[in-house]
Amino acid sequence: MKKGYYGEFGGQFVPELLMPPLLELEEAMKTIMKSAEFCDEYTRLLTDFIGRPTAMTHCRNLSRELGFNLWLKREDLAHTGAHKINNTVGQALLTQMMGKTTLLAETGAGQHGVATACAASLLDLDCEIYMGAVDVERQSHNVKRMELFGAKVVPVESGTKTLKDAINAAMRKWIADQETTHYCFGTAAGAHPFPLLVRELQSIIGREAKAQFVEKNGKLPDYVVACVGGGSNAIGMFHDFVPEESVKIIGVEAGGTGEPGCYNSAPISLGTTGVLHGMNTKLLQTEEGQILPSHSVSAGLDYPGVGPEHVYLHDSGRVEYAIINDGQAINAFKTMCRKEGILPALESSHAVAWALENKDSIPAGSNVLVNLSGRGDKDMDIFEKYTAEYGN
What we know:
Blueprint: E1 5-6, E2 9-10, H1 19-31, H2 36-50, E3 56-58, H3 60-66, E4 69-74, H4 84-97, E5 102-107, H5 111-122, E6 126-132, H6 133-138, H7 140-148, E7 152-156, H8 163-177, E8 181-183, H9 194-202, H10 204-217, E9 223-227, H11 232-238, E10 248-254, H12 267-270, E11 272-276, E12 279-283, H13 308-315, E13 319-324, H14 326-340, H15 346-357, E14 367-372, H16 380-390
Parallel strand pairs: 4-14, 5-6, 5-8, 6-7, 9-10, 9-14, 10-13
Antiparallel strand pairs: 1-2, 3-4, 11-12
Helix pairs in contact: 2-4, 4-5, 5-7, 9-11, 10-11, 14-15
């Protein structure tokens, strides 16, 4: 496989001005990230700051109703409430050891922005976060958290005012300030080496989950499930299970409101091949290559592209990618609250919904392990608006 590619997907489709910091980052991954100093300090921070290992929970009430065992890997219990912190603390530490002073980031749901601001505060770095104006409004609590951690939040008014436009704005800023600034990319997408970097920092999820499940059950799970927007929580969860052929791996994309032809966030299932944000991948686009608007009730999944390794895993047949719509995700959100006392992020609710919607085709007694990538406190305003419009 060519460097920076997953099959035909990946690469570095960026302006010439962005090649120096990408090459600098690739070199830092080969040297600094493999040093004992980095590894020892990152391991310490995973334990003492983030709170790893996160728990694994057996959903006893739902398992009785479903006829199979539903398990959750609890990334919602990590510091700041989502898996994003694994990546940002690692990139912040790398930034500090590279001698740079500023973390730059984009965010959709706000969880990556909160985690970046938190990591910057911990390691005494300046922090600037770009966020679509629509997402600023629908994730206002997370904006306040970023600002409390000392970050400057920049609303992006261009385009659809969501994650895609925030990434465009952050990339322009990085070109101007690359000598002092590291772009802390939030998901396993973008130009090489970001998909590899984010996967390496998030693969702690799958390593822990695999060891915890075997310790509890003496065997591997039958299914591993995770939601896919850009794809960071999913690739982190999947990586250690990919070689295990007995494990069925399911990625869940967001199907929007669900009616035929609606705006969605399912580029693997419904998109075509193209280039966006420095990578060759599957995109939601017109025949002429213009990016289409995406939609999901979950801001964190609202993105017209996806990380290139996911497309490779799909095309190779190793991972199955399914679609869950807004209403099904909201139902899973409520069901997890009422049956298990757990408030999942709307992103993670898509993965839970896959298990609920496929209960009749999952063999009785199976073990289904879902990555609960984050907690849903941030989504209460969205939930209230949704139920006001569509009812309970």
